[in-house]
Amino acid sequence: MIKLLIVDDEQMERDALQAILEKHFSNLVVKQARNGRLAIEIAAEFQPDLVLMDIQMPGMSGFEAIEKINHDNPHIKFVMITAYATFDYARSALKLGVIDYMVKPSKVTDIVETMGRTLHRIEEEQKSLEKDKYQQHTLQKAMSIFETDVVTQLLFDHVHEVHLNELVELLEMQMTEEKFVMSVLLPLGSESYYTEIREKVREIGNGWIGALYGRQLPIIVFKNQEQSYRAQASLLAREILKLVKADDAKDWFIGIGKVYTSLDQIRQSYQESLLATRDTSLPVKYRFYSDLPTLVPGIDEKMSKQYEQQVYEHIRNGEWGEVNTTLTNLIERYEKEGNHLLKTQQHLMELLWIVSQVLSEMGVVLDSPIYPFQATDYRQLRAETSHLLERLQQSFRDHFENMEADTIEKIKQYIIDHAYQDISLEEIGKVVGLSPIYISKIFKEQLGVNYIHFLTECRIEKAKKLMRDPEKSLKEITFEVGYHDPNYFSKVFKKMCHASPTEYRKNIHA
Question: Can the keyword Transcription regulation be found in this entry's annotation (predicted)?
Fold first, then answer.
């Protein structure tokens, strides 16, 4: 329905005009105003799409009323009604953005013709506006999905440069050279907080939010040059924790990794943020990795953190033999140095906790590894450590032993069949029964390219085929292959094909 306001100081003129319009147009909601001042009040409340404005009225003229209404409501269209179709009137009307005029008295056919033309224009603009709103909504939805996938691949793999650069531009986000990771631990079943946290990160500053993996939500934060790292991270952590209901607060914790300049190092900050969550019983529910002391007094802190990082990377890469070797070497070193047996056991417990955390990322459900007793000598400690590590490895095997040999082919085919949609690693994970992180890992290992690159190749190949049809516009092709912004599609296409879509199309039709 189109809302119409008729403004004229003559009651008979208003009623006659309304009767004619309602007879010939069924999609109108009509209100009347007898003068310019009343028209301003009604327009503010009624928010008409179109105003038929008489120019010569006592008190405030139609031109004055149009100017005031237009100031607060620039979307409203105006058609001038006047008994004087002079050049001066026309010039004044054009300056105010009046789109048409009718001369009094007018024939019914002239009124219907003018209004038909005007209403058609308004309908087309409304359709275009709705389409733009829909496309903007779907673009935002797609970018949220894309953002979580890029975070997954930055933290667990390597994202393709094409997408990283264009994503920054699309999100209108100023990516600074320095960046760090925050890991938010939520209670199970707290998925409802996800949207609130995303909005809070957007409000406080630049950041990318990953997918929620079990209890863990990673956030890549871009350093604000006007704040210190600690001030920025502390503010964001406190604001996130303010979202939490009092009954849930005890199960929340935020770990904060150190600042790095290279995207290749962002995984290091992520690892640190996770390690900073290993003691969640603290009264302050966030902690910086740099403030994390060695939990075992007497153990060299620098060496301890080196072992943590080694174990973390080995498990992430599926190198179980190297993990076993690292733990064995550590036990031998501590034995030779004469370290207290209990301190060594406590440190090994920390390292096995790291193994369990990485497995949890991959979707392996398990209890935290715990020594069933206090070892009485190093031989016994070696045997029990090996046993606990074997149990963790067996949990890993059990989780993935049912994975069919053609899982990667299934993933590839799913991406090919749904490339035009807003698909994500999380969605693919539901289809094949694997965690998004593990999909990213095995995809890169077995195919040599990451998931986003493969998805892009599928879309670009389809775009090339569609370009053979001269009847299809590039805008249509953009949406058909799964993109929501023609400019973004054009930039990705040019970087992948070394030619713009227009240039490529000219070559194939030459």
Answer: yes
